[in-house]
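quick one, 173 residues, struct below
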Amino acid sequence: MEKRITGRTGMFCLIGTPVGHSGSPAMYNYSFAQTGLDYAYLAYDVPLEKTEEAVNALKVLGCKGFNVTMPCKTRVAELVDELSDAAKLIGACNTVVDGKLYGNNTDGMGFVRNLKENGVDVKGKKITVMGAGGAATAIQVQCALDGAKKLSIFNRKDEFYANGEKTVKKIQQ
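---
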């Protein structure tokens, strides 16, 4: 049966740029159809300088929640009403839920959860992460929040090196 959008259909979406290649609309819309939920998921190409306008528009439209991709993750973290502990430490969020805009960063949670589902609990472990970019930072922060005993970050002296140093300081605090 074909999905029909009505006046009561709730909206979820992805913002960032580029988003034309994203598989999220297909994945979410399939899931909504399979579970009988009256929602639709769209992707909006939003450049960094239009992020605040987009977030305000989504609030006005009653968007149920949205995902954020680059380059908007850091800017969205500055615009939400509240951030998860991980998103605060990372300084970026990739998931926002409606009502009070609550921003989270699920990259690290997904990685650590996958480890746990495969028999590896980071609690009390010595963890080494290669890199200090966005995804690596999310993993580092989540490992720290989940009780890693020691965290070592290795990164060459490139544009992400300073981010690695900042992450170490934030985690130590």
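The first strand starts at residue 10 and ends at 16.
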